[in-house]
Amino acid sequence: MDAARGGGHSSAASAFAAGIAEEAARLWSELQLPVRVDWAAVAAQCASLWAHARALLLVPAVRLLVFLSLAMTVMILVEKLFVCAVCLVVRAFRLGPHLRYHWEPIIAGSADGGDEESGGHGGGGEAKYPVVLVQIPMYNEREVYKLSIGAACALEWPSERFVIQVLDDSTDPVVKDLVEMECQRWKSKGVNIKYEVRGNRKGYKAGALKEGLKHEYVKDCEYIAMFDADFQPESDFLLRTIPFLVHNPEIALVQTRWKFVNSDECLLTRFQEMSLDYHFKYEQEAGSSVYSFFGFNGTAGVWRISAIDDAGGWKDRTTVEDMDLAVRAMLQGWKFVYVGDIKVKSELPSTFKAYRFQQHRWSCGPANLFKKMMVEIVENKKVSLWSKIHLWYDFFFVGKVAAHTVTFIYYCFAIPLSVLLPEIQIPLWGVVYVPTAITLLKALGTPSSFHLVILWVLFENVMSLHRIKAAVSGLLDAGGRVNEWVVTEKLGDTSKAKPGTNGSDAVKVIDVKLTEPLIPKLVKRRARFWERYHCSELFVGTCILLCGFYDLLLANKGYYIFLFLQGTAFLVVGFGSILFTSRRDAVHSGERIAADVNGIALAANLCRSPNS
After folding, report:
1. The CATH number of the domain where 176 resides is what?
2. Domain count, the chain
3. Is 173 a member of any domain?
4. Are residues 270 and 320 in the same domain?
């Protein structure tokens, strides 16, 4: 009976399903839906939509982009022409800082103005010398700490009238001990040198400099000379800079020029020298001559301590604490002077990784500072309208924002994209004449490297991608790297050291046989593709090359030569070419490996010694 009941249920279900199927078939036949798609019609509709979007949105947007790029390019050209004209007048008429300001050497004499035979190293003759503080901030500077400390200790100034302050934020205990030992070594020779450490790295360099001014012995100091760890001033540095501050109470800062000891290491350092020489020889010279203002470079300069206090002291709100202090001091009415005749030896980043970190800080920081100070600049009542216009427009907008923006947006985006759009026609002067004039004006800084101009321009265009990303993040105050501070790696002169001239931190090689490894072998994780190469540069370079081929084969606008060169430059940088590798890198790596081997050998010998 149960089986019969189950069979009845099954028949009813089957009949119900069959009824649903018949009803669905009837509805389908009534609807008469087309089963074939006319792909040609679909393609025509898509083409029509693309044509309308291109005509109404894309072409006007690119045309506006080209117009804005041309306008900013003209702004940059006018700024370069003005800077070069000012420097030409200054040099032609010899209007150097010694003529614009009162300068005379500080002559030692007795406190009562009597006999000058006492000299500058004792007695009352030291009274005319102001007390100077020399600050050297450091962070794990194993390769160069001796250079800066030794150069500072050799400065010609009465020993009782200046203090050297080594601000060590090192996290490596070995480096910390080495720096402290070096300070103690000079202190034993009678040099007034102080070794200062903090419990944390809050504020990075700005925090260290601010903390250094809180010590009791600083209260007697009137001026501060600042040097980064790789800077080596000449012995007469203070004798040539301090008189500007002593005889001109309106001057807050005396900035000197950087001289690069490793500019011939590789193409990367040559390109940096070309850019920085123009910055010092022209931009800072013009700013000092016309506006008595320029951005402090963070090192190789002498500040009046009262001007730092008047400006509000060091602040760590951006990664360009030096520029922040300079702008605030300028808004208080202080003047700056650049003395290009005084050169301080320093080191350029010789690895591409270190250079990228440095350029990120130098591009993001100023843009971020501009955002935070633009209203303060406009509302300031202590400086003239002309000075505010220069600071707001020329110094920040053109120099720190427009320069990075137009370099990438125009030369690496708008021009390649115009190849794909016949409606976009860029005038010849905007493609050839104006860029050529800007390039030649900037190349005046380093005439000896004029043969590298084309490669330099291509490299600067590639770096503009990195810089514009940093500048945008700074303007928007977005991203985790806005306040990132990565100390630029230095290699020092270790590769040039002669045998037998090892420093106090050298380790003697001990010939021992290791039977067991002292430390386990580390298995290095294989880097992924996007970690080994710079994918952004590779992508942009590929797109520019494709635009070049399109121009050569179809568009015929004549841009393909530039596009091929620029695209190739992006790929070269993206893959990390050996052209940008320093000759010292391999030597430096070998020395570090040798030092590690020596350390292991020493440890093994100590472990085997019965007295250990």
Report:
1. 3.90.550.10
2. 2
3. yes
4. yes
pLDDT at 309: 97
- Percentage of the chain modeled with pLDDT above 90: 69
Residues 6+ away with beta carbon under 8 Å from 39: none
DSSP 68-113: HHHHHHHHHHHHHHHHHHHHHHHHHTT--HHHHS---------TTS
Domain with 270 in it: 129-348
Q: Select from 330, 348, 366 the last residue of a domain.
A: 348
Same-domain check for residues 422 and 566: yes
Nearest to 211 by CA among 168, 240, 243: 168
Both 75 and 146 in a single domain?
no
For residue 9, pLDDT beyond 90: no
Which member of 168, 277, 316, 322 is catalytic? 322
Where residue 251 falls among pLDDT bands split at 50, 70, 90? very high
At 12, the pLDDT band (50, 70, 90 cuts) reads low
Residues 233, 300, single domain; the answer is: yes
Asked about 505 being catalytic, the answer comes back as no
Residue 512 CA to its chain's centroid (Å): 45
Structure confidence by residue, pLDDT tens digits, 423-440: 999 999 999 999 999 999
Strand partners, 377: none
Q: Using CA atoms of 262, 265, 267, 268 in order, give the dihedral in degrees to the nearest 10.
A: -50
Tokens (6 digits) for 300:
């190789």
DSSP assigned state of 307: H
Query: In the sheet where 335-346 sits, what is the strand order?
Result: 193-197, 162-168, 132-138, 223-226, 301-304, 251-260, 335-346
64 plus 166 within the same structural domain: no
Task: Note the pTM of the prediction, 2 decimals.
Answer: 0.82
Angle at 410 between CA 407 and CA 412, to 5 degrees: 80
Average pLDDT over residues 20-35: 63
Cβ neighbours of residue 177 closer than 8 Å, sequence gap 6 or more: none
Lookup result for tokens 């898509």: 46
Give the chain's mean pLDDT.
84
- Flag whether 44 is in a domain: no
Which single residue is written with the structure tokens 């990367």? 268
Provide mean pLDDT across the span 401-418: 94
- Dihedral angle of Cα 290, 295, 298, 299, to the nearest 10 degrees: -20
Are residues 252 and 198 part of one domain? Answer: yes
Residue 454 lies in a domain: yes
In a domain, 106, yes or no: no
| Catalytic choice (168, 169, 230, 316) | 169
Annotated active-site residue 585? The verdict is: no
Instruction: Report strand pairing: 223-226 vs 193-197.
Output: unpaired
